[in-house]
Amino acid sequence: MRHPRLTSPIILASFTAAAISVGVLTVRQVTKFFDGLPPPGTFQDGAGDPAAAGPPRTAMNPLTPLAPPPHSISEHVIAKNSTIARTLQNLGFLATERATILSALKPWASPTRLAAGTQLKAYILNAEDAYPRRLDLHLDKNTIVRFSKQSSGNWTASNYEPPLERRIASYSGVVNGSLWNSAAGAGMDPQIISRLTEIFGWQVDFHREVQRGDRWRLTVERFYSEGKPVRLGEIIAAEYDNDGNINTAVLAPDEGQYYTPEGNSLRRMFLRSPLRFARITSGFNAHRFHPILHIAKPHLGIDYGAATGTPIMAVGAGTVAFAAYHGASGNTVTLRHNSVYSTHYKHLSRFAADVHPGSRVKMGQIIGYVGRTGLATGPHLHFELHANGRYVDPSGVRLPTADPLPAKQLASFKAVASKALSELPPWSAGMLTDARRTSRDSDDEEKTQ
Ligand SMILES: [Zn+2]
After folding, report:
1. Do 265 and 409 touch, CB atoms closer than 8 A?
2. Which of these three, 230, 259, 288, is where a domain ends?
3. How does pLDDT run across 168-194, given as a tens digit for each residue?
4. How far is the CA of 224 from the centre of ligand 1 (A)?
5. Which residue of 27, 39, 144, 271 has the fewest C-beta atoms within 10 A of its own C-beta?
6. Alpha-carbon distance values, 353 to 50, 274, 323 (Å)
7. pTM for the structure as a whole
8. Range of the domain at 238
9. CA 267 to ligand 1 center in whole angstroms
């Protein structure tokens, strides 16, 4: 199941968040972090014992039961100036049986020309067997030829692809320097942190709101082949504690999307309009003739005609970035919604009482009232949407949908969520109580450029 591709604004948002987090590291360090799997100290292979992989905090729990284990496995390497025939002989195979096995090998390789160092695994399947009934010849990195003795006594050979084993890894971390560094501190592939910022991109502005002392914990799929990690799967469940405000996400496997444990989408859709009863009097127009200035002046927002005093709602949750009188715009409120989107509300008659720079607003919260302050022909709201600092036409942007899970899936999802949340690791011990208290005053964190 692939992680679904989200609509482009979200990709942009999450990419920005990840890229910004990288900013505190040097390129060299980042390259090293991404230099293949596993990250140092996290995985051990070869032992075949899941419990032995990694320190306690990153312990692996096998989920997928494997086929019944063979009685014993022995590993052999074809020595220089030797042959597979010799190896088979050493394993106790008689001449006729060796010939059958070598003949089955011929479609893949010449039995006399195998490279020195070629690995052969021999499987004694049952305790009472006198010799192997299965052989795996590792011709190269990607090719395993599996020989199996049939009940008829014949040997067959086929290409063998080892099954992937799914394990769940769990990690938790505390932000001390940067979010990015907290992954390294937890011994976790930083790639997983960028996925975390994707999941919570609409709850947390990872560009600006990450605080020292923020905590996160998650479970993520890892796929193993023959005991070796081959790739990451999906984050199963995650929590991000942003300055004491805990956000929770659980993957709905059938949807390939993340929801709160109650089945609500983590993606927040903007309201279609900042006014409850909107009448657009002037749309977004890059080539408009300005009614007052009488010059060609693009109209980079939408005008809503409404009576003075009509309440104006925040179209999305966010932080007040600006709330003051501003020249021709008159009384203006600017909201930052995440690292990509901001909205701007102009010509207000007055501000809502609790709207000040830095204060948080919820989607739909009243932030002010329609007026005609600044340069305005009459009472109206001039509304702008900016993406990455550029004006965009709010009616032309495909903003993400945020539908909750369909009701008929809710019961089964709640069961999935309950189990997934119970499997989250404990929060990392902070040791950061003091740091958290002073984090807003410190000057060495999260000032990513
Ligand atoms: Zn306007």
Report:
1. no
2. 259
3. 999 999 998 889 899 988 999 989 998
4. 57
5. 27
6. 57, 18, 11
7. 0.48
8. 8-64+164-259
9. 29
Are 387 and 288 contained in the same domain? yes
Please check whether residue 264 lies inside any domain of the structure. no
Q: Determine the distance separating the centroid of ligand 1 and the alpha carbon of 70, expressed in angstroms.
A: 75
What is the whole-number distance in angstroms between the Cα of residue 201 and the centre of ligand 1? 30
d(CA 333, CA 324): 7
Joined together, the tokens standing for residue 199 give 């999941």
> 315 CA distance to ligand 1 centroid (A)?
17
Please report, as a single letter, which amino acid is at residue 252: A
Single-letter amino acid code for the residue at 381: L
Which tokens sit at 65?
């039961």
Q: Read off the DSSP letter of residue 310.
A: -
Q: What is d(CA 323, CA 312) in angstroms, rounded to the nearest whole number?
A: 13
Report the alpha-carbon distance of residue 132 to residue 121 in Å, rounded: 10
C-alpha 139: how far from chain center: 36
User: How far, in Å, from the CA of 243 to the mean position of ligand 1?
Assistant: 37
40-88 tens-digit pLDDT: 323 323 233 333 333 333 333 334 344 567 788 899 999 988 899 999 9
What is the Cα–Cα distance from 323 to 334, expressed in whole angstroms? 7
Ligand 1 centroid to 288 CA: how many Å?
A: 11
| Cα 446 to ligand 1 centre (Å) | 35
Q: What angle do CA 54, 58, 62 make, to 5 degrees?
A: 85
Distance 326 CA to ligand 1 centre (A): 14
305 and 213 belong to one structural domain:
no
